[in-house]
Amino acid sequence: MAEITAKMVAQLRELTGLGMMECKKALVEADGDIKKAEEVMRIKSGNKASKLAGRTAAEGIIAAFISDDKKIGAVLEVNCETDFLAKDEGFIAFAKLAAQAVADANPADVDALAQVVVNGKTVEEIRKDAVAKLGENVTLRRFARFETAGQVAAYLHGNKLGVLLDIAGGDEQLAKQIAMHIAATKPKSLDASGVPAELIETERRVATERAKEAGKPEAMLEKIVEGTVQKYLKDVVLLSQSFVMDDKVTIEQLLKANSATVNAFNLFVVGEGIEKAVVDYAAEVAAAAKI
Predict the structure, then answer these.
(1) CATH no. for 59-195+237-269
(2) Buried (b) or exposed (e) across 111-142, using 16+ Cβ within 10 A?
(3) Rounded to an integer, what distance in angstroms lies between the CA atom of residue 187 and that of residue 50?
(4) Which PROSITE patterns match (predicted)?
């Protein structure tokens, strides 16, 4: 049995970022072979990641990356189990690394992103290392990437909301202002054609029932409903929205005045659409008191 020295433990810890006791146990198992011990820890890290995979990860952050020439950009949602971990520097570093991997490698989806190699390791291997080190389930949920002849801009609001914008014309200040506007108003689409048909149908159905309950004449229903739908579209379509920094102009008018065009945008909000488990802590404490 090889002697396990403090220097060996420190070296393995530097390589893996894991705890001293875990490093020492791996070195004992590998009979002092640093490379084999690292492999042992990677295997165990993978096992730990698998055990945590079923736990709901609805917290997290939005990370973004924009190339120096502003021609390529990416925005990414990475989830974890607690808001406390979302503030951890290691977790934030992993999210930023993954966002840059999206921009650089242009993966087709999250599964493809997991196989992108960064500094000799796949993103999935780095994720498993993070799970082992941080002790929570960590998941790559979704991303968007733009590559344009114009410019790409991003705006992050407290890491919980992120906007990626593809805009042609204008300047950096305009791009930032439009991205901030999107963050504030959360439009459904760029123009009316992008609003999902089911949303419009819901508005039409609600407007019809309201008009009937208000006793409006049957002959007026169609006109009333259409007016309500148009008002809804004005509120949720980016180009027709009033600019939050100057409500006297619409986004469409603002863009025209600056000879600019928005090609596309993406808006991510952390945990949006994820069903969170509701924990009854009072019941848990009561049950524990009976043990």
Answers:
(1) 3.30.479.20
(2) eebbebeeeeeebbbbbbbbbbbbebbbbbbb
(3) 37
(4) EF_TS_1, EF_TS_2
| 121 vs 221 pLDDT, higher one | 121
The DSSP secondary structure of 23-47, one letter per residue, reads HHHHHHHTTT-HHHHHHHHHHHHHH
280-291 tens-digit pLDDT: 445 544 544 454
For residue 125 the two structure tokens come to 């291997």
Residues 6+ apart with CB under 8 A from 276: 56, 58
Overall fold of domain 6-52: Helicase, Ruva Protein; domain 3 (1.10.8)
pTM for this prediction:
0.74
For the chain, the helix, strand and coil percentages under 3-state DSSP, each to the nearest 5:
50, 20, 25
Q: What is the pLDDT of residues 97-125, one digit of tens each?
A: 999 999 999 999 999 999 999 999 999 99
